[in-house]
Amino acid sequence: MVRNTSMMKLKVFTDQWGHLVPVEENHTIPFDIKRVYYIYHVEKGVRRGFHSHRELQQALICVHGEVKILTKTPEEELTICLNNPSEALLIGPMVWREMYDFSDDAVLLVLASEPYDESDYIRDYSVYEKEAKNWLRSAQIHDIPR
Ligand code: T46
Questions:
Q1: Distance CA 64, CA 91 (A)
Q2: Confidence of residue 136 (pLDDT cuts 50, 70, 90)
Q3: pLDDT at site 145
Q4: What whole-number percentage of the chain has pLDDT above 70?
Q5: Atom 21 of ligand 1, nearest CA residue
Q6: Is-catalytic flag, 41?
């Protein structure tokens, strides 16, 4: 995994009536959940994201269908295919992400540690690269828990 990212297995309660996955802040997910949003009906060929966050932590869960997530720092990159509603991809600060190859039926649920704040986004890759190199050199203490 790329620095400041990790995959989490979520506990599934299964019985004859189906499956249930509970998600609780500071328990299942290692931060306060201050915002929830979801992305769906993304057309073929569309690529979203193209940014990093300075502070935000997020958990991405593909609750239906499939989507690829490119995670990238100046040092490494990894593409993860999310297609299991009982798995969460945690992405901490200073990780570049792009989301693509959404299946027609994909629903990507995102749990976020902060309210929406455009000033937390770095949308220019060259600005990101410069800030991230400095940040990665000095900021182990900000790594998300594993
Ligand atoms: C991320 C990836 C995984 C809001 O007004 N409030 C919100 O909470 C969000 C997330 C977005 N918006 C507005 C801002 C834009 O006008 O919705 C529009 C689309 O947002 P954006 O282009 O940033 O969407 P993505 O799919 O590129 O990125 C989103 C999140 O913004 C981002 O934090 O990590 O999903």
A1: 20
A2: confident
A3: 52
A4: 95
A5: 49
A6: no
Mean predicted confidence (pLDDT) in 34-53: 98
* Residue whose CB lies within 8 A of the most ligand 1 atoms, among 5, 51, 97, for a mutation test: 51
For ligand 1, residues with CB inside 6 Å are 35, 37, 39, 48-49, 58, 97, 99, 110, 116
Give the largest Cα separation in the chain, rounded. 53
Q: Which of 14, 85, 76, 139 lies closest to 54, judged by CA?
A: 139
Q: Worst-scoring range by mean pLDDT, 13-17, 109-113, 132-136?
A: 132-136
Tokens for 42? 């993304």
CA-CA distance, 144 to 65, in Å (whole number)? 27
